[in-house]
Amino acid sequence: MSDLLQRLRDRGWRLTAQRRVIAEVLDGEHVHYTAEEVHARAVERLPEISRASVYNTLGELVALGEVVEVTTDGRAKRYDPNVHQEHQHLVCSGCGMIRDVRTEGDLMAALPFGERFGFAVDEVTVTYYGRCPGCAAAS
Amino acid sequence: MSDLLQRLRDRGWRLTAQRRVIAEVLDGEHVHYTAEEVHARAVERLPEISRASVYNTLGELVALGEVVEVTTDGRAKRYDPNVHQEHQHLVCSGCGMIRDVRTEGDLMAALPFGERFGFAVDEVTVTYYGRCPGCAAAS
DNA sequence: GTCTTGACTTGGACATAGTCCAATATAGGA
DNA sequence: TCCTATATTGGACTATGTCCAAGTCAAGAC
């Protein structure tokens, strides 16, 4: 993620304290924070950062392809910085925890041409649901 | 869908005018309305029906397994009454139109055991994104 | 180092989606 | 026809996200 800032600078971004903090918050594996969670964590490092800046910056990162939006439930969108390794998601239906997972085979090929209705299909997302070990033990 | 009302009665539901109208609105193929769209259509037949009743009834239908929630974007949830034929969704990234599609092969098997992290995986949803013929022509 | 300027940030108002609740109405059995 | 548990209602409230005008500042020019 450290070179994210360099990539952004290369694209003409002004590197503000706010953007740096947001990039730091998004650093790591299996990070899937909501915008409000990103804001809460950013505030710990930069107390005056606003919600608007977080929403703006996340939207820009998504537009640049540096972060992807994930919506596994109908609640808040989550932001996944793990874009350089293709993956899908495994979601615990108990606690909502999300793991990045890699699938086998060609998921796109699972959709026959006869089922494409003239669409130019260019993306497929797969979400697996189950109970994580903790939630399975608790029930 | 006409026998939906019978199934609900068998489960002890009271058949009110509101529930009948909601069931009628959800009748059909490739129906994926938001709660507000269901409400707007229900109001045409029963002007005094409230938003709360629509939300309540949709939630109950989901709990009973008669309707499934679909969230393809981060916006409002959509309600899909086509539960008796397993299917996935194809979404136009231009206009948001949704088609039900049937996939080939075992999507669950695409997730290796080594990628399950101890989860008891019991469901998989797949969403294909592309541009429908109309939106492709317009761009 | 300082100036300048256009891009960035901010707080707050607004919009949209959904939930909750106390009061009222009613389906369907007695 | 009556009774009552269940359903409906309007409206307040919460959560999530968007928009905007005013103020701030990063970084290139000098």
Automatic annotation (TrEMBL), chains A, B:
Matches recorded under InterPro entries: FUR, Fur_C, WH-like_DNA-bd_sf, WH_DNA-bd_sf
Origin: domain of life: Bacteria
GO biological process, one term: regulation of secondary metabolite biosynthetic process
Cofactor(s) needed for function: Zn(2+)
Pfam family, one: FUR
Binding site for Zn(2+): C92, C95, C132, C135
Coiled coil: none
One GO molecular-function entry: DNA-binding transcription factor activity
Cofactor binding mode and count: Binds 1 zinc ion per subunit.
Statement: the UniProt record of this protein carries the keyword Transcription regulation: yes
Family annotation (PANTHER family): HYDROGEN PEROXIDE SENSITIVE REPRESSOR (PTHR33202:SF22), ZINC UPTAKE REGULATION PROTEIN (PTHR33202)
Family named by the database record: Belongs to the Fur family.
Protein name as annotated: Transcriptional repressor
Species in which this protein is naturally found: Streptomyces alkaliphilus
